[in-house]
């Protein structure tokens, strides 16, 4: 179930001290294991104040994953297209310093290699990043989609962010898309 995250520590840096957290499983549909890109977009846009008239389930139905008929999730280009179709833009940046700078203005969407980040065997996972502390990044849909913890250690985040898999999925190393209004 999606809900607002508001138990943020005092040393948190990011524009949004409260944000929406959606998970793959919130789609309750055929793409529930591969719609992390849609969950990242929906979380970021809802946090920015966007109002979609339909539920996350219908958002995924209208904008399904597109890689290999949806079986391998969503491409970077599709992430950018979906954000644009919903009245926002994606500005592309690279690197951790850029990530920390854009988080002062709003959320970013990044692709992580879950195996390298220590969260699973292998695979890619799109997340919306909302802020950070000295030791953690605050994300949607992390920790096995259970919602038990919205943090990823900075070390694991960086290990999962620049791998062969993520470089190919996002078409460059340390790619991030800052989601802002048009």
Determine Rg (CA atoms, Å).
14 Å
Q: Kindly state the percentage of residues in helix.
A: 25-40%
CATH topology: Cathepsin B, Chain A
Which outline best applies? globular
Distance between the termini: 29 Å
Which percent range describes the beta-strand content? 15-25%
Task: State the fourth-level CATH superfamily.
Answer: Phytochelatin synthase, N-terminal domain
What would CATH call the class? Alpha Beta
Taking the sheet with the most strands, its summary is: 6 strands, antiparallel
Low-pLDDT regions: none
Structural features, described:
- With 182 residues, the protein is an alpha+beta fold.
- The protein has a single domain (3-181), classed as Phytochelatin synthase, N-terminal domain (Cathepsin B, Chain A), CATH 3.90.70.30.
- Helices cover 27% and strands 23% of the residues.
- The chain contains 6 helices and 8 strands; from the N terminus they run ββαααβαββββααβ.
- It has helices spanning 36-47, 56-62, 76-85, 96-102, 154-161, 164-169; strands spanning 3-5, 19-21, 88-94, 108-113, 124-132, 136-139, 151-153, 175-181.
- The strands form 2 sheets. Strands 3-8-4-5-6-7 form a 6-stranded antiparallel beta sheet, sandwiched between helices.
- The radius of gyration is 14 Å and the shape is globular.
